[in-house]
Amino acid sequence: MHATALPDVRLLLDQIVDEAVHVCASDIHVEPTATHYEVRYRVDGSLGSAWKLDTPAGRGVVGRLMVLAQLLTYRLDVPQEGRLEWATGSSATKLPMRLAVMPTTHGLRAAVRLAAELIQPQTLEELGHSPQVLEGLRRFAASDAGTLVVTGPAGSGKTTTIYAVLQHIVRQTPDVSVIALEDPVERDIPGVTQIEVKPFGELTYERCLRSILRQDPQVLMLGEIRDATTASLAIQAALSGHRLICTLHAASPAGAIQRLLEMGCEPYQITSALFGVLSQRLLRRLANGGYRGRIAAAEFVPLDPALRKAILARSDEEGLREAIQRRPHHHSLRSSACELVESGVTDELEVRRVLGEESRHF
Predict the structure, then answer these.
(1) What is the pLDDT of residue 155?
(2) Residue 354: burial class (beta carbons within 10 Å; 0-12, 13-18, 19+)
(3) Which is nearest to 293 in space by CA: 111, 118, 51?
């Protein structure tokens, strides 16, 4: 861990960000404590300490970030969010980064999300999904209607997968109209109209969805289904002949379908609108006796007659899970993870860390 007194703040911030980029960090945390500031990097999903700064230096780093993001440096009592651009090394290309600042009992805490293109895959092939999952995603991309629901906890790579699907659609059919509603926009996707919604402002998911069809889209991406109103509007959009991609926080495909039912979506609407559900997790890769980088373990569940019947019968989550597991050649999330262990990409310890007790359901 680095330790500093009060150096040149610009030089210090340059060193911190350049080092974070070098180690392929996804986030930088600048955290105040009672005695100092701690700088931590999130690498492959895990936070690790990198710098220990004197309080004046830490405050200077946070202040410099706020200036670059054009935030109000004199407001120390409210959360603030902004964007900044960063030129790494000798590169003339500036990479976009997001900044969130939060007041704490010891001062302002800053979290920087680094440019996604530095560490995230860009294409379906680069995602590392199994052939079964890739085949399901390609079939959805080639379809002309239906909803693809992507599930998993925060940090499981859902947005990365969705971006890869959208880029695949745009490459295969450049004349298609694609609109994405996001909170926030993670990175720019050429060929896609991206709208950053504000859940607590005027431009909400609900307001956008109610008017978005008048923009003549053929493919819609909805960052997340969070409530019954959004779920209903999303299903209606899919039923009107659009391809829809959305995320939903659920532990499994069965759990995702159960959540839609609990949100008030009628079973016949779900069976008419749903193309399939993708559930995924990110596992750390083995490299030289340690971990370096991550790869997805995933399960793709298309709508088939048995699952359709279970949905129409309003089966509970266990009943939906049984219908999914009875599918011929079903490839579960656990099976996907075990294949990665068998091929030496990761190990059982990492699978247990990520899947935990839930692994027995897959």
Answers:
(1) 82
(2) buried
(3) 118
Q: What is the pLDDT of residues 216-256, one digit of tens each?
A: 899 999 988 988 988 998 898 899 888 999 999 899 999 99
Backbone angles phi, psi at 68, to 5 degrees: -65, -35
CATH code for the domain in which residue 96 is found: 3.30.450.90
pTM: 0.81
β 193-196/243-248 pair status: unpaired
Long-range contacts of 6-11 (CB under 8 A, 24+ apart): 6/54, 6/56, 6/57, 6/60, 7/57, 9/57, 9/60, 9/61, 9/63, 9/64, 10/64
- Find out whether 299 and 332 touch, Cβ atoms under 8 Å: yes
Amino acid present at 351: V
Label residue 118 by pLDDT band (50, 70, 90).
low
Q: How many helices (H) and strands (E) does the chain have?
A: 12, 14
* 228-260 CB burial, b ≥16 within 10 A, e <16: ebbbbbbbbbbeeebbbbbbbbbbbbbbbbbbb
Q: Based on the fold, state whether residues 113 and 133 are members of the same structural domain.
A: no
pLDDT band at 362 (very low <50, low <70, confident <90, very high): very low
**Residue where a domain terminates, one of 117, 150, 168:** 117
Determine the residue type at 131: P
Domain span including residue 51:
2-117
Q: How confident is the model at residue 93 (pLDDT cuts 50, 70, 90)?
A: low
